[in-house]
Amino acid sequence: MTHALIASLRAAAGDMTPALARVAETVLAQPDATLRQSITELAEVSGSSEASVMRFCRDQGFSGFQDFKLALAKELATDERARDIGSPSDDIQRLVETAIISLRETEQLIVRKDVATASRKLLDASVVECFGIAASAVTAQYLAYKMTRIGKFSRALGDAHLAVMAAGTAQSGTVQVVISSSGSTIDAVRVADLARSKGAFVIGISNRSKSPLIAACDLALIASWPETPLTGGAFPSKISQLLIVDALVAEMTRQDPKRLVELSRTAEVVSDRSF
Amino acid sequence: MTHALIASLRAAAGDMTPALARVAETVLAQPDATLRQSITELAEVSGSSEASVMRFCRDQGFSGFQDFKLALAKELATDERARDIGSPSDDIQRLVETAIISLRETEQLIVRKDVATASRKLLDASVVECFGIAASAVTAQYLAYKMTRIGKFSRALGDAHLAVMAAGTAQSGTVQVVISSSGSTIDAVRVADLARSKGAFVIGISNRSKSPLIAACDLALIASWPETPLTGGAFPSKISQLLIVDALVAEMTRQDPKRLVELSRTAEVVSDRSF
DNA sequence: AACGATATGAAAAAAAACTCCAAAACTGAA
DNA sequence: TTCAGTTTTGGAGTTTTTTTTCATATCGTT
């Protein structure tokens, strides 16, 4: 919560403008070196300008470069333990270790207040639609399933056309959850825009904080963007999304404890389908 | 080590010259306030001069005021950290920690040889069917998606009746993957039995090693069964299943590296669906 | 009191941080 | 394609902060 600087930086880096992205990469590559640099030096090393570094700091929510460096110093001071662990001897171990880092980062990225707000909206919704395509369809399905388990009807839409149609009929009581790892999937943004224009409350779940999807949402929940972006990062980013889903569901049962009763009731209903 | 700076400062404060001692006292009284002050402000507040503050920093072994502030920030951060650890962790933190344990356990449970065998079978299969119901449907869908990504066609069946029908038409080249967390779901076992009787190779994924499903399979892959069985355990056991799926897919690309080419090709195909 | 050594702060100099603005790059529409 | 409007960007200037310099004050010793 307090020490989410590096993680949120990585989540934001992807959708920054070129100059800002260069600054972000430079900082991420050598965070400790940044501490010893002046704004002029960092501008030079990253191939941008002082003004861009300044903008970078502001965008991250700091009052200026000084403020940013102070926060970074704090982060690095506590971060020393996270660096040692991990002797990745085989593929699966490596997968597990990156997944763990990603989960921890996501835990820090999750804004508790936003989870509470989102949960409230979901509980109060007359209709809940979950949309995700490709890999994100899995997350959407998981959310819909979990909500059904606590007696809150919702459906997952894995088809872009269906989702667009559904979004088109959204009303003010509708909550539309849109999931996209990159946050740049055209269909996802379209669904978000459309649902919002119809008066629905739109919750975005993504691994990128600065993305078209997030810009189009009423509320955004960000999962960690793992260091290894290609194949190796798919699993960590996926389970980080699922963590957010579970956080939402946990919060919903906390806000409305009688949902736990629903949970055991749904368990009863399916018990005759087991040995 | 933890309080190196503050401690040595307090120790040194006694026999400093008056002006420097005032600076030291001011810093010790409000270390966190110092972080937000400029050298001029600190000089003013401590009733000394900028030059004295400068000398103070140098005497402590720092190159200047900035350097001192950075070190102080780190020190205070570790303090905050220590306080955080003592405080009761919230729901999300607890979720993450149990998930981590579960992932590590699953990594231990995964029999590498079985993963290799299963991957071989999947690669050689003429048809791959993935079946999972309720929460396990998510895992099935994830597996089907990932296999499609590496150019190996497979489909997920989330409907028990459809799955039974599909299993009934299985042949010797068919690989049937059946997922059930408890391993006791009637429909899952039925699908496994039926597919096997038709000559299919049946791979079971479950969180229970001694279960009807596992007994009915040719090969079993076991994910960890977390201690907390109710709500708290659902998330860990789910992502442990996904870990197994990713382990399978990683092994498949290892055995058949040209699959990686397929991966980037599928990425290209969908790239025009992004901004 | 005179001397030398140390301590101190005012002010100048240097550096760093921050702001502003016009040029460049990019966007989408005609 | 051109063109208008927007966004992005870095240069140049301004302000603030840090650092150095140096003259003066202070103190202990003889």
UniProtKB/TrEMBL annotation, chains A, B:
GO BP field: carbohydrate derivative metabolic process
Positions of the HTH rpiR-type domain: 3-79
Top-level taxonomic group: Bacteria
Xref: InterPro entries: Homeodomain-like_sf, HTH_RpiR, RpiR-like, RpiR-like_SIS, SIS_dom, SIS_dom_sf, WH-like_DNA-bd_sf
Keywords assigned by UniProt, alphabetized: DNA-binding, Transcription, Transcription regulation
Occurrences of domain SIS (ranges): 118-258
TM stretches of this protein: none
Stored PROSITE patterns: HTH_RPIR (PS51071), SIS (PS51464)
A single GO molecular function term of this UniProt record: DNA-binding transcription factor activity
Protein name according to UniProt: MurR/RpiR family transcriptional regulator
